[in-house]
Specification:
The chain is mainly α. It has one domain. The protein is about 80% helix and about 0% strand. It has six helices and no strands. The chain has helices at about 5-25, 30-35, 35-55, 60-65, 70-80, 90-110. Helix 3 crosses helix 5. The longest helix has 25 residues, at about 90-110.
Amino acid sequence: MTRHNDMTRLHHMVDHAREAVAMLRTMSRSDLGHNRMLELALVRLIEVVGEAAVRVSDSGKAQYPSIPWRSVTGMRNRLIHGYDEVDLDVLWDTIMLDLPPLIAELERIVAGG
């Protein structure tokens, strides 16, 4: 198995975050509540963003303090461990409000790396 470096993990984070935002670009909040495949896809994308963040080394996290590491990994933990009670309003707000600034910061980092 290939070990990934921190920059690869950051690329995974930004790629999956972009995909989640793109999926909702033409959707409304009610679409999310009525489309199980969309819900499952978005949950998975956010889980991957969080899992990639978990795998960034401590020194990598220290190098990029502008990334809200605890929030990103906390959301992953919520989705993984609370799989039976996903709050779609929180999922929607995370994607619509929290991901765009995260994506911008990750893009800035990966462009320089």
